[in-house]
Structure formats: C-alpha cells, structure tokens
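Narrative of activities, Objective 1.

The group set out to show that a structural description can be obtained from nothing but a protein's sequence at a throughput compatible with the screening campaign. Below is one input-output pair from the validation batch, recorded exactly as produced.
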Amino acid sequence: MPNIAIFDLDYTLTKRGTWGRFVFQNVKWQPWLWGPLLVSAAWHQWLYKQGRIARIEVKQAMIRWSMAGKTRANMLRLAENFAQNEVPNKLRPGAIRALNAHKDAGDIIIIASAAVDIIVEAIARRLDIKHWVATNMKWENDRLLADFSSKNCYGIEKLNRTGPLLDENTGLKQSDTIITFYSDSHSDIEMFTFCDIGIAVNPNPRLRHAAPDLGIEIVDWNQ
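Output recorded for this entry:
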C-alpha cells in the first residue's frame, strides 16, 4: 500500500505566504483601496496579537476591503492566475524534489493549509494533487461574502480536518500506512504529533527549538 505525505502550503511548499499576495492581486488596479486595506489589516493583526480577536477575523477584515462581492467566476479566475505564476516560480526547490520523490514512490499526497480553498485547490490541481483541506470561503448567490464557511484551517483545526479526510476516503490510510508531515510552523504541532514522521522545513524559531525533543528532522528546502 502507498504511504501518505501531508504538506503545509505557506512557507513549506511556497517560499512566501500566499494570502497577502493574493489579496494584493485583487486590489492592485485599485490604488484608492491600498491605504484603507493596509490600515485595516494592521489594526486587526494587532488585535489578534493582543488576543482580542480570532486569527480568522484578520482574514475577514482583508476580504471586506479587497474582494467581498466579487463573483465566483472572477475569484476562481484570479486564483488560477495566481497558481499559474506560483507553481513554476514560487515553490521552494526542496519542495519540488520532495513532491517528485513521493510521486515516484506512489505515495498519496495531501495539502493541509490555512490558506483559502480557491488558492489551495488551484495550486493542488497544477501539482496533480487530488486531496487537500483548507479554509473554505463563503458564497451567496455566487458572490463572495466577507466570511468563511469553515473554521480557519489552522492549528488543531488542521488536524480536525485532516483526520476525517483520511477516514472518509477508503484506501487513503491502512493500518500499516506511514504518514509523513512537512511544515515550517510550530502552529502545526498537533499534526506533527499525529503523523509518524515529522519534517520541519526551514522552521520558525519555536519549531526549530522544539524539533529535537519531538524527533522532528529539520531540513533546508531553499537549496
């Protein structure tokens, strides 16, 4: 039976975060929105750091200024354009090698990300990855709302979403399947604990500090 490789997206497969750049793509021809968007994003980020709002509310605030009300067709087109540039140009070199190695071994590959679903799906499709979990955007009458239809796929929620994906898809996971997880962030510590093998990709300081005690290998994918 094939094994399973689960990849975080931002700063693991990609060199940079996807959300801020996708938001800017939505407003780059609307400079009158740049100031209000930046002020709103900074304010809500400060509130989040102070523990006064949830992380997902930062994203909601950015959606309100940059993309709320746009049609589903428009948003999917923007996501495809984003992925079209991201996959050939913005992935870490080591990520490409790891993906190819798992594909050559016949392993099942999953992306588990807090990024929004339309971005993750578009990138996964270009990488020929069938399975993914993400933060799901919310629509009404085919127009985007400043809200989400799922919880933010971050921290423990990433595990809460990945577990059912494995359970509900017959053949994804057998009793002897080895699951390897790749991430750059300590926020994914529950995923590292759940999986059999953990790989810290260019980790943030907290994960780099915790990795040796947890038996997590540290790798540099910038080379």
